[in-house]
């Protein structure tokens, strides 16, 4: 009998546990989009206690930190443990067009919603065009 071994199988399993897969990401999956004059970010953080969330902005980098504690199974026999627990970090690089001084965040039903207003300088604006002449002039040859 011939056995085929894959020396990278255990390494792949560990990488999937920490990095995640497309079907089961290990970090905070997010959606981000602009809605008018506001940039919105929704991060899925089910099972996170609100007091364990931490948001921090430094030099246009938004850092989200969350902690999910392992289940307390004293005296019981844990059969399956697939939900990741521990401390999770996610860093988002924000453009210069966002007003990082006025960020607002709400955590509801396992979703952290971060609202970042677009700065006044980045908002589209109309520019008036003035002509140098107010009266038509005659062109002669």
Architecture blueprint of SSEs:
Elements: H1 9-19, E1 30-35, E2 38-44, E3 54-58, E4 61-68, E5 86-93, E6 104-108, E7 111-117
Antiparallel strand pairs: 1-2, 2-7, 3-4, 4-5, 6-7
Biggest beta-sheet profile = 4 strands, antiparallel
Which structural class do you get from the secondary structure elements? mainly beta
Q: Identify the quaternary structure here.
A: single chain
Percentage of residues in strands: 25-35%
Task: Compute the number of helices.
Answer: 1
**CATH domain class of the domain at 28-122:** Mainly Beta
Alpha-carbon Rg, integer: 26 Å
Mean pLDDT: 80
Task: Give the proportion of residues in helices.
Answer: under 10%
Enter the CATH topology name of the domain at 28-122. Answer: Immunoglobulin-like
**DSSP strand tally:** 7
Q: Unreliable stretches, pLDDT < 50, 5 or more residues? A: none
Distance between the termini: 101 Å
Which sequence of strands runs across the widest sheet?
Answer: 1-2-7-6
- Categorize the overall geometry: elongated
Topology order in helix (H) and strand (E) letters: HEEEEEEE
CATH architecture of the domain at 28-122: Sandwich
């Amino acid at each position: 009998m011939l056995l085929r071994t894959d020396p990278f199988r255990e390494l792949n399993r560990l990488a999937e546990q920490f990095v995640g897969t497309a079907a089961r990401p290990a970090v905070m999956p997010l959606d981000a989009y602009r809605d008018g004059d506001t940039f919105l970010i929704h991060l899925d953080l089910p099972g996170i206690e609100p007091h364990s969330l931490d948001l921090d902005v430094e030099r246009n980098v938004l850092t989200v930190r969350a902690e999910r504690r392992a289940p307390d199974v004293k005296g019981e026999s844990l059969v399956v443990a697939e939900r990741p627990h521990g401390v999770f970090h996610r860093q988002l690089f924000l453009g210069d067009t966002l007003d990082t001084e006025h960020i607002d965040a709400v955590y509801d039903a396992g979703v952290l919603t971060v609202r970042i207003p677009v700065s006044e300088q980045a908002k589209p604006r109309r520019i008036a065009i003035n002509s140098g002449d107010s009266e038509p002039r005659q062109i002669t040859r």
